[in-house]
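Our preliminary data section would be incomplete without showing what the modeling component actually yields. Below, a chain of 425 amino acids is followed by its predicted structure, encoded as tokens that our downstream tools consume directly.
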Amino acid sequence: MSPSLPNGDSPDLHLVVSTPEEIIAQQQANSDEWRGVLSLPAYLRREEMLAEQDLTKDGGLTAWALVYQPPGSSEEDRRVVCGCETIRKRALVASNNTVEFVTAHGVCSVFCPPQNRGKGYAGRMMNELGERLKTWQSKGQSNLFSVLWSDIGKVRRCCNNPAIHQSIPIRTTPQHLPITRSSPQQDFYAARGWRAFPSSHISLDANPEIPSDLPPTQSLKATDLPYLCESDESALISQIPKGQKPTVALVPDIATLSWHHAREEFTASELFSDKNRKPEIKGAIVGSEAGKQAWCIWTRVWTNPSEEDGNTLHILRLVVEDGLLGGLDSFSAADETGVANVQDSEAVAAVAALFAAARKEASEWEMEVVEFWNPNSVALAAARKLGADAKVHEREKASISSLRWYGEGSGDEVEWACNEKYGWC
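Predicted structure:
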């Protein structure tokens, strides 16, 4: 802790948009937490590249800093005490038989340097940021929600102590999940308006074998994705529940998916530069008849050997069209009753084929597991076709999805659809 810095309640602390120089300094400071398998120079190049993607360029990404700037000092003299980023996202809010497109923001890359911890800076920054995001880039209208995915459970201190914030990343078959419990990791954000949603996933070991009794799949490449994203968006608008309670969803558009793939491709270029390997296969699809298809889009994530989680092929988005679902529920969380009701359906066989294709791709890239977030009963039943012991894992320490509601009401009744990995940032 620096004795020359004030406590977090000082009137001389201000939340500002970072200068280019402050952005680079913050990236250098947080690199040990965030660069993973990349070297520092490669990490800095990756961040520069990601800032120029369609999702993030032209103001899509905002770098924020909490700065100490006493009266009379200049911008050049201000000191950054902690920082974060937000990414502008297209989103839907549905209620009372209507669907509205809105702007939402994802909060990510929260970091307080070790020497600045213990003074309440993270709490001050998140309090001010939460209020600022109500109208940030809203073009005269109020934004209706913001999201984050918390990893502070990995920090071995109580999150009610604002000293703990060394990093908070953002991480997401449609579903709504009720809150069943809280934890110290979640309380920090809940106290600042971000309601914690239970966050779950299913994992399948990488495996090159594809069972012969499953329908055939075709590989998806980057050129296939724009049309599928448009189809997915149109279907989501019509299918999302429109009852009295607000239901929100981040839009799984091509800009969002391409951002994930840009990260993947950059890392692959660094790790496999001598082999010229490129992750060209972006997913898989089953079926050829419009309205009766299923597809998934994935990304590869490499981690350091010292990290708890191994290399993972993450399924960003899973889509099963209505004609294949045949009236099955795709918006509810997986449960045993649901699995029993759907296990013999065409939809389950199709999703099992997609999961098998993902396992094969993971094996070819020497990844340990395939992971899919927040499964419904169709997805869980499909996973059990490939491994009878497949189950839903509840995350308690990493990637805890949280949402702050700015619309009418307290937000306790808001439901979050399509809370899948594509939303992570």
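The radius of gyration is 21 Å. Confidence is low (pLDDT under 50) at residues 153-185. Preliminary results of this kind motivate Aim 1 of the renewal.
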